[in-house]
Protein: Dynamin
Organism: Thermosulfidibacter takaii
Amino acid sequence: MHFGVAQEKITQAIATLAPMVKEQDREMLSEVERKLKENKFNLVVLGQFKRGKTTFINALLGEKLLPSAILPLTSIVTTLEYGPQMEVEVHFLDGQVKKIEPQNIRLYVTERENPKNEKGVKYVRVLHPASILKKGIILVDTPGVGSLYENNTDVTYGFLPRVDAGVFLLTVDPPLSKEEIAFLKDVYPHVERIFFVLNKVDYVDSDDLQEVMDFALGNLKEALGSNHIPIYPLSAKMALEGRTDGDEGKVVKSGIADLEEALEDFLLKEKGSIVLRSSANKVLSLLSTSLFQVELEIKAATTPLEELEEKIERFRVIKEEISQERRDSEFLFKGGIDSLIKIVNMDMERFQTQKIPKIYARLLETFQENKHRGSLELSKLLDQAMKEILVREFDQMVIQENEKVNAEYSRIARRFADKVNDIIDRLMVLAAELFEIPLERFQVEETITEESSLWYKLEDRPKLLDL
Ligand SMILES: Nc1nc2c(ncn2[C@@H]2O[C@H](COP(=O)(O)OP(=O)(O)O)[C@@H](O)[C@H]2O)c(=O)[nH]1
Ligand SMILES: [Mg+2]
């Protein structure tokens, strides 16, 4: 279908749907409509905290616009789209919009200047003349996940349904963390297209780069179960410095050109279809939930009042019963989790009472064997012995606990999922019976048993032995 025709059809569907949906869904629809009309889509920069997302966006813009440093953490989403001149708007949660000077962005988007978002900012919108934006993308800088501030993770996750395509930043130091893999698995189903970038390559020399790339690639392949994953090496910092200093050599060395080329190629060839597909999907999913409500209303309008009141009363009684059951199930689930936590705590205590003496004995042994050595060497040996025994004991414990926790958690979750499915079933049958509406059945998946595992962290140098 021609882009214009499809665009028109989706716009019509939005216009029909808009008056029928809830306020907040209407907001989402009008955003979809705007993006569709302007043929724009969100290219969201994702990744863990401090991977260089903000630096990368600044490099694309060719100027140090958004605040990035070791300390100030972006806790607010910033969107950037094309405008003939730079303009910055702060959109507040209460609906107000304020124009600000570009150098004041930091007052709103950093944790230091706006702790816990006490200023009530919803997002910051930047209009900018950069050529990459001219092609119709809305670049989005997210706070990132896995930072100290839980709020950031929530904000980033909250943005996922709005992602059309993503740039996912990894770094060479360390190549891929457990949290990153978990986050990536969450992101993947939401995104039509994702570009992987291995940032901070200036930390490794060119001999090691291939090795680091292969390692990251192997991890990604394993995590995503896919074989074709292009990954772009980059030094966002070098690209930004090169552009702000007018040092073309640095820009070339940074690797940004390949990535920009891939992005532009993608914009040229695929953007239109992604805009359409992603808009249509968003409208469709809203449509299917709205449809049920509309059908209910139609049925209600055509049923005699008395009969309807009787049905409503029956529905109310059964609904109350089901609510009670839901509360019971939640209670059961909580109880299950509590007892799981107790089991883990008990295991930890047992680990402590059994293993700590063993660790001490081993350290003492090392000390006795080596006490004739110099204090620096002795301290090194003790460090090493401590690390070895800790790693060995902890590894063993973690493997056992993981198995136990996963098995027990799956069991609890399965029971809970069964109950929830049962409740959904009954509600549907009831609604279908009372109001004669055919419904599509859906299942609560057992993915409720999302696996997450225990881990521990060993400092390079145990502080205990800081002699
Ligand atoms: N060496 C090096 N440092 C970088 C690079 N990109 C970003 N950084 C630094 O990493 C830190 C975090 O960057 P930032 O862009 O704020 O990360 P964000 O939290 O993902 O937005 C800053 O100190 C940046 O200067 C890079 O390519 N190389
Ligand atoms: Mg940032």
In short: The chain has two domains: 3-290, 305-465. The chain has 13 helices and nine strands. The domain at 3-290 is CATH 3.40.50.300 (Rossmann fold). Residues 47, 49-55, 68-70, 74, 144, 199-200, 202-203, 235-237 surround guanosine-5'-diphosphate (ligand 1) (CB under 6 Å).
